[in-house]
Amino acid sequence: MSSPWRSSWHVIVDNNNPTTQTQMADAVGSSAGTLPIRLVLFDIDGTLVTTGGAGVKAFGEAFEAAFGIPNATEKIKFAGRTDYSLFRELCQWNEVEFSVAHRDLFFENYLRLVDNHLQANEGGPFPGVVKLLDDLAALPDAPAIALLTGNIEEGAKRKLGTYDLWDRFAFGGFANDNEDRNLIAAAAKAKGSEYLERPLEGGEIVVIGDTPKDVACGKFIEARTLGVATGGASLDELVACTPDWAVPDLTHLTAAEICGR
After folding, report:
1. Contact yes or no for 43/214 (Cβ under 8 A)
2. Which of 45, 117, 179, 186 has most Cβ atoms within 10 angstroms of its Cβ?
3. pLDDT at 222 over 70
4. pLDDT at site 120
5. What Cα–Cα distance (Å) separates residue 160 from each residue in 2, 62, 64, 231, 233?
6. If you ran DSSP here, which 8-state letter would residue 144 be given?
7. How far is CA 47 from CA 66, 68, 95, 187, in A?
8. Taking the model in full, what pTM does it have?
9. pLDDT at residue 214 is higher than 90
10. Which residue has the higher pLDDT, 75 or 21?
11. Which of 169, 198, 175 is nearest to 187 (CA)?
12. How many CB atoms neighbour CB 233 within 10 A?
């Protein structure tokens, strides 16, 4: 495994894939990379855990339970999306009027049904997740650890609670904050400033996720970004987004390397 580059972005390659080359962008001379990391934000599905597709299954079943329309999710791509934007798209595809009342009805059914799938599947944390969380918390002057996810808050709680991870996170940005993932990132940054009782600069934040949308929302708030190829995108697809790091899984980078300790 190659070492992280100390430049404007970093890539760790998968040594089992000889076609993947270590790449380094030209340094941009930004001071962001030299700021101490005060906040680490994690995506959930495909980044922290696999739920065996519990959320996707529950989405389809909930739409049928609420509106009597089966197979509603067949044309929908879930990776990197937010729950509220997915519901809006489901309404558009299936000619159901979008309203807050309909949305509330849908998510009442979703939460009931996702519990059934979470209890039945054999999902769990991805390699390196638990150790990284432990090591981040153990760092001297440890950063705050929080969530940046497209899940609604209660759905996130149930998914992570299934694997005893919910209490690891101080707060989060959720779909309840906005349909747009970039604006969820902005909400998470604002909550981080409130939690730490000081304004946060983007360069003091790391956003960790498994899709190009995760990388993009991190860049939107000028955070440093770590793409992990355990979910919605391949390592090559993540590298193409020029995150600060791209890794096959979270065993390939240490807490100290992420936070510059």
Report:
1. yes
2. 45
3. yes
4. 81
5. 31, 20, 25, 16, 21
6. E
7. 30, 33, 33, 20
8. 0.86
9. yes
10. 75
11. 175
12. 25
- Which of residues 52 and 249 earns the better pLDDT score? 249
Q: Give the pLDDT of residue 111.
A: 95
User: 249 pLDDT exceeds 90?
Assistant: yes
* CA angle, 254 then 259 then 261, to 5°: 85
Q: What are 13's two structure tokens? A: 């390659």
Q: How many CA atoms lie within 13 A of 167 on its CB side?
A: 1
Contacts of 212 (CB under 8 A, 6+ apart): 80, 227, 233, 237, 238, 240, 241
Considering only CA atoms, which of 39, 7, 11, 35 is closest in space to residue 260? 35
Strands (E), the chain: 39-42, 49-50, 124-125, 144-148, 172-173, 205-209, 224-228, 245-247
Q: What is the mean pLDDT of the chain?
A: 87
Q: Which two tokens stand for residue 74?
A: 């067949």
Assign a CATH topology to domain 32-50+124-259: Rossmann fold (3.40.50)
- Check residue 175 and give its pLDDT: 94
